[in-house]
Each structure stands twice: as structure tokens, then as C-alpha cells.
Design brief:
The protein is an all-alpha fold. It has one domain. The protein has 2 helices and no strands. The radius of gyration is 15 Å and the shape is elongated. The relative contact order is 0.10.
């Protein structure tokens, strides 16, 4: 049986998290510079998390 459904779910979950994060950051009452800094940090964290998860799922 294919695991395509699980992959689609995980992709949708990650996409939803990124979109929600972006909406939350850019709607927060902060300056644009501070919002961009936070967005950059959060995206870097997310990238590390995805790399870690994708590496551990292939074990």
C-alpha cells in the first residue's frame, strides 16, 4: 500500500503551519523590520526541523 496519503497530509500540515506563521507574524503589532527578522528566524527553525524529520523518517 502506498504512503502517498501520509506524504500529502504532512505536506499540507507544513504548508498550513508556514501560512499560519506568516499571517501571525505580519499581523502582529511590530515594525516591518522586526517582523522580517522574526520571520527569517522562524523559517530557519522550520527548515532545520524539516531536515531533522526527513532524516529521521528514512531510518
Amino acid at each position: 500500500m502506498s504512503d502517498d496519503g501520509g506524504n500529502k497530509f504532512l505536506s499540507g500540515l507544513i504548508l498550513g503551519a508556514v501560512i499560519g506563521l506568516a499571517i501571525g507574524i505580519f499581523n502582529a503589532p511590530r515594525s516591518g523590520e522586526e517582523s522580517r527578522k522574526i520571520a527569517k528566524e522562524k523559517l530557519a527553525e522550520l527548515g532545520k526541523h524539516i531536515k531533522h524529520e526527513s532524516g529521521s523518517s528514512s531510518d
